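Can't paste images in this forum, so I'm doing it all in text. The chain is below; anyone willing to post the predicted structure tokens underneath?
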Amino acid sequence: MTESSTYIQPPPAHEHRGGRWIYGTLAALLLVLVVWLLIKWLSAPKPTAKAPPTIPVAAASVKRGDFNVYLDELGTVTPVYTVTVASRVAGELTEVHYREGQIVKKNDLLAVIDPRPYRAALVQAQGQLARDQALLDNARLDLVRYQNSYAEHAIPEQQLATQKALVDQDAGTVKLDQGNLDAAQVNVDYTRIVSPIDGRVGLRTVDPGNIVPANGTTGIATITQLQPITVIFTIAEDNLDEVVEQIAAGHKLGVDALDRTQKNKLASGTLLTVDNQINVATGTVRARATFPNTHNELFPNQFVNARLLVKTLTQVNLVPNAAIQRNGDVAFVYVIQADGSVKSADIEIQSTDGKESAATGVEPGQQLVTDGFDKLQNGTKVTIKPEPAAPITPAATGAAAASEARSGEVKKAG
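Text version of the structure:
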């Protein structure tokens, strides 16, 4: 070994033993810590799985009651009678005795045509009849004398036969004159134009002073009967058998006339009859309903919605339409069970209207889901949402303010 080499003296033996003891102690403590952590982790309680959240839904109950089966169709208000009053004789219109829009009765005087020419013709017919009646009377007296003379063989039989023929001729002339007299009297009567029906007069079409023709197409006035009045509407041929069956049984079917929105009822009436054939182009048959129209609720040619009450189903299950779901042709509802879960139930709809349906497959009192169907399936837990509070109307607000004011006045007085 050279002088430049460095000599390292080894540590004493007791130092080697002290270091190993420290390392062993630390390792043992670490092992104990790991074992303790492992035991603690294994003995800790396992967390339980969270229950799925319940779904808030709206619900309504199944009720039992009577259900009216209606047919809703579009109809037109049609008067029973509409008459265009025209003059039966030609002449000058001298008088008008009605106001436009006036309600008139049968045989009320409406207008007058100048009667003077027709009265003159009547006088002529009366004179003609009187002259020919005198000739007939004279011929009959001569016939009596000829019969007496023939009985005494004073005249030939031919002369008697000629006189009989003359009497018959004069009798025919008198009858002709009587017919002319009656025609002249009718023409005089026609100069007074009267209402043929009860109804409402429309706008005047001819003013006094005009010459009107006989049987003109324009007419002097149009009269429409308003009380009673009818509504003509159509019924689909698929529903015709049920309606005819009710009519054949002697039932009077009620009909309501509704406005265009089908929210306001204008009048109530009864079904009068149905037409005798089906329109092959539309597959419908026309029906007529009659309405008293005492307050003129319906107006001729007005479009209305006719609601025909076909029959009434008694004591059936009433299901809200909002609760009904469909899977193809199958209708079903979600029934809320006693444990808060839902279960689907197939139903059969007997009839329906805008708000509810008569159906089988459910029982009265059952709660049905009406809103919140998105995540529903059999067994899903639900909670029923509270019904929204009724909105406060201005009238209610004013009443509350008045009540508070009165309370303040009472306190001040106290």
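The first strand starts at residue 55 and ends at 61. The first helix runs from residue 13 to 43.
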